[in-house]
């Protein structure tokens, strides 16, 4: 595991201003995490499944079932969807949380968020336009057949430009780019962090019903407020403080 006290651990002090590859994290020893790395290598949230009520257990365990073919996105859109989900979540090898499938199912079933920006199209249309716009930008700016066909550095550059509202013209003229980024990332992140493998990665103890929590409002300090079912992380750095130090 990398020494996170070194200054080159912080992206703003690294030559390429990019965070280190997540492989600096410990190898997962118990349970499953995305790419089998994580901050809590001996934690498996599924050991608590017998403490959940039947309805909760059914919902959570269903997320581990094999996924079927996409129902909303077309075969032509699928490669760019998968490439986008992988690059924004740094999932570059198996096991992966099936984010593309989760996003596809939500859109296919019309399970939207219940609100929509006034200057934006329906979220389903937004996703299709974003994928088309990424393919256009990959072709026009980098000479690639599509976003999915681009090398990882090119995909990272395009996603960075998208996040900063710097992809303009063509399909992008039909979207408020900043809001489109928000729509796509909100759905992508909610899909990723709904999965037990992601919970293992961050040490989340899963549903608290009907077990509940015991240490609310206790003395300060990570050791004193840890629940009995929680484990200590392999590193002591506070991730919130690390992000603030990095200037994000």
UniProtKB/TrEMBL annotation:
Residues 236-248 have a biased composition (Acidic residues). It comes from the Bacteria. Pfam families: Gluconate_2-dh3. InterPro entries: Gluconate_2DH_su3. Residues 1-37, 220-248 are annotated as: Disordered. Residues 1-19 have a biased composition (Basic and acidic residues). This is Gluconate 2-dehydrogenase subunit 3 family protein.
């Amino acid at each position: 595991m990398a020494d996170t006290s070194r200054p080159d651990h912080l992206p703003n002090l690294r030559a390429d201003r990019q965070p280190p590859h997540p492989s600096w994290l410990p190898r997962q020893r118990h349970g499953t995490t995305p790419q089998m790395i994580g901050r809590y290598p001996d934690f498996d949230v599924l050991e608590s499944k017998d403490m959940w009520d039947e309805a909760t257990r059914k919902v959570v365990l269903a997320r581990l079932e094999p996924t079927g073919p996409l129902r909303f996105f077309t075969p032509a859109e699928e490669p760019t969807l998968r490439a986008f989900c992988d690059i924004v979540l740094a999932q570059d090898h198996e096991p992966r949380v099936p984010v593309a499938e989760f996003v596809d199912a939500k859109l296919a079933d019309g399970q939207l968020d219940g609100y929509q920006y006034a200057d934006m199209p329906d979220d389903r249309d937004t996703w299709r336009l974003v994928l088309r716009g990424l393919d256009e930008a990959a072709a026009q700016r980098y000479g690639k057949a599509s976003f999915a066909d681009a090398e990882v550095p090119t995909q990272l550059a395009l996603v960075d430009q998208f996040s900063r509202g710097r992809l303009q013209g063509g399909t992008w003229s039909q979207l408020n780019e900043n809001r489109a980024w928000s729509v796509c990332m909100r759905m992508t992140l909610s899909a990723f962090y709904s999965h037990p493998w992601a919970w293992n990665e961050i040490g989340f103890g899963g549903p608290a019903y009907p077990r509940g929590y015991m240490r609310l409002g206790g003395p300060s300090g990570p050791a004193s407020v840890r629940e009995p079912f929680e484990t200590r992380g392999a590193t002591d750095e506070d991730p919130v403080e690390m992000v603030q130090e990095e200037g994000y």
